[in-house]
Amino acid sequence: MNKMTKGALATGLGVALLIGGGGSLAVWNTSAQANAGTIVSGDMGLKAEAASWTNSAGTNVTAKVKDGTYKIVPGDSLKFTQPVEVTLTGDLLKAQLSVTDTALTGDRTFNAANYTVSAVDIKDSSSKSVIGQELTQDGRYTASVTFDFKASTSGLSDTNAKYDFSKVGYKLDQIASSSD
Fold first, then answer.
1. pLDDT tens readout for residues 5-18
2. What is the spatial distance between Cα 76 and Cα 161, in angstroms, rounded to a whole number?
3. What predicted TM-score, i.e. pTM, was given to this entire model?
4. pLDDT, tens digit (0-9, with 9 covering 90-100), for 85-112
5. Which residues contact 137 (CB under 8 A, 6 or more apart)?
6. How far, CA to CA in Å, does 28 sit from each of 15, 31, 117?
C-alpha cells in the first residue's frame, strides 16, 4: 500500500473509533441557568363610586334628581359630587385623569341667560385640581360640578326645563414613557 492510502485508512479508523465511543471530539464545556426571573405587567383602574346631588340648602336630593322629581327653582343651586378611585400598579406607571364630555353636550332646554354651570373638576384631598396632572400612585379624588339657576330669572322663564348631565364621564390615560 502506498503512503497516501495508509494515511487515509489510519485517519478513517481513528475517526470511526472516536465516533463509535472510543473518545470525544469535543473540548470541555459546562452550562448554568440564568435565573433571570419573571416579568409581570402592572395594571390601571378607574372606578366612579356613588354620586350625590346637594341643593343650596345643603339637603341631599340625589334620589329626586335621578328620578326627575326634584324641581329646581330660580335662586337654587345643585352641586354634583362623585368620588373617583384611581388604581395605578406599575413601577414606572404615570397617568392622567380627565373628564369626558367637558362641553356638557347632554340635552338642555334652559335659556342660557338663566343659569350657570361650573366646569366639571376633579380634586384631591387638599382641594387641588388633578385634571391634566401626572398621577403616579393610587388615589381617591372627588369630581364635582355645580348648576346655578339664577335668581334673576324673570316671569315663568324656564318652567319645566331640563339640563342633562348623563354624558359626563371620566377617563384615565397612561402617559407613555419617553423611551417609547
1. 666 666 766 666 55
2. 14
3. 0.77
4. 999 999 999 999 999 987 677 788 999 9
5. 88
6. 19, 11, 80
> Residue 75: helix, strand or coil by DSSP?
coil
> Which residue is associated with the grid cell 319645566?
160
Which one has a higher pLDDT value, 31 or 4?
Answer: 31
Give the DSSP letter string of 130-169: -BTPPB-S-EEEEEEEEEEE-TT--TTTTTT--B--TT-E
Residues 6+ apart with CB under 8 A from 42: 88, 89, 90, 91, 93
The cell numbers describing 46, all together, are 378607574
Select from 101, 122, 170, 114 the least CA-distant residue to 147: 114
Q: What is d(CA 132, CA 28) in angstroms, rounded to the nearest whole number?
A: 61
